[in-house]
Known about the structure:
The complex is a heterodimer of chains A (69) and B (473). Chain A is mainly α and 69 residues long. Chain A is built from 2 helices and no strands.
Amino acid sequence: MPAEPPEPLSEATVRSLAREVVRLPLTEAMVEPLRSTLEGLFKEIAAIGDADREGSEPLSQVNIEEWPS
Amino acid sequence: MNSANDLLASTASSIAADVRARKLSAVEVTRGALARIDALNPQLRAFITVMADQALAEAAAVDQAVAAGRVLPLAGVPIAVKDSFDVAGVPTTAGSKILAGSKATADAESVKRLRDAGCVVLGKSSLHEFAYGFTSRNPHYGDCRNPWDLSRVPGGSSGGNAVALATGMALGAIGGDTGGSIRLPAALCGIVGLKVTYGRVSRHGGVPLSWSIDTVGPMTRTVADAAHLLQAMAGHDSKDPACSRLPVPDYVADLGRDLKGVRIGIPHRGFFEPLDPEVGGAMQESLEALRQTGAQLVDVDWPSLEPVVGAHRAILFAEASAAHEPMIRARAAELSDDVRPLLQSGLFLTSGQYLAAQQARRKIIEQYRRLWRGFDLLVTPTSPIPAPEIGTTSTKLGDRDVPLVRAFLDLTLPFNLTGQPALALPCGFTRAGLPVGLQLVGRPFAERLLLQAGAAFEAARALPGRVPAVVRN
């Protein structure tokens, strides 16, 4: 799928992505709630771009450490 | 002495002391709790499964152990277990019909540890389906309702626990928190909820939502009780790959100490602006109470929450969908209408988006670590609004219409992303009698200081004891 899907996200795009890329079976009633959720999700995730990620390795799940006081 | 017939007038620690001293039997206490569940559960839907016979047998075994001289720190304390954690012999539904036919063969590690300490499991409590929501509405098992106003939500996803504690059905509970699921219901129902440091308590035996941010923690009526439950729950477990090997300190030792020398940061931007006016009023009074404890309050300039929310969303959505992918593909029609699109949408995220979020997460942790040099604890409201009516999807904050998911979770989820411990506790009531909650946040593995501060605040604030009308009627 495209990293930044077109906005606004259309039902046709969601149907196409579900069928061609994700291979997720959808009934017609599932399309609009999924489209609306995806549109909100992509907008919120776009804000990650505001964070400084330069030189940062992705966090693994077991290395939360103590901080000195 | 405590009365077994009214757990609202008791605490877990005082009940345990009475059972250990054989002034009260665990069976009497359990009968009292079960009677309250019988009376209120049809209205409130706090429990999905009530384990009456099993609980009474377990209580009898506790009484026998006490009589035989065994020291049980939580002897006879009746607890609820969120129905996303295994209790041997009964289903773990996770609030979904899809798992209704399951049967756990062993206790989740947190359940085992509390049972070993003398707790009695009353049943499996209600939650938002797959813990993937913040209202505890549930079309499969019935909407869980706020005991302070039955037309309002109790918060979620661990809503059933909060309702059980607020009404005296239980004196302790095991909850899970991935974005605020312990703290939000604690705030909206007027009880105490502790989201622990990631890795402090084993998650073994729980239905996962997001592996890299899920936590398990205690919910109680008082801060001291949260300390007692955490003491039993915390510590390494080789069955949970994220569980820390750091030693477990004495969480009870510092309860009762003042906060002289403790610096508490106030992050006005993002956390205090804007708030519902009555929540704002309760927070101002609470800051004054914190000053009375001897703490030094310092203003903190807080960075934007938007990248934090974005990173949390990407990780949560991708991991939740990965955890449940076969079910999403095969049985989506059986999921509730609000949870289905959440689980489906995570399948549309790319590995690049997920990894960018985990990269951002590391940077955000470094940023918060630097901020924490200027203070020891952070204080915020737990929720900017009191409990809304069932069916509400957005709320007015200042001059903005804010989706409920943002209003509810923006103040809690940052500390899931950073793995820090956070304590939610009652700090006031609105004129309509709805609870308001305060959140204290500490450095990773600083639960001891967090609980000390919570207890000091609780004593200084000295809220009058209130009982929901549904209990009095």
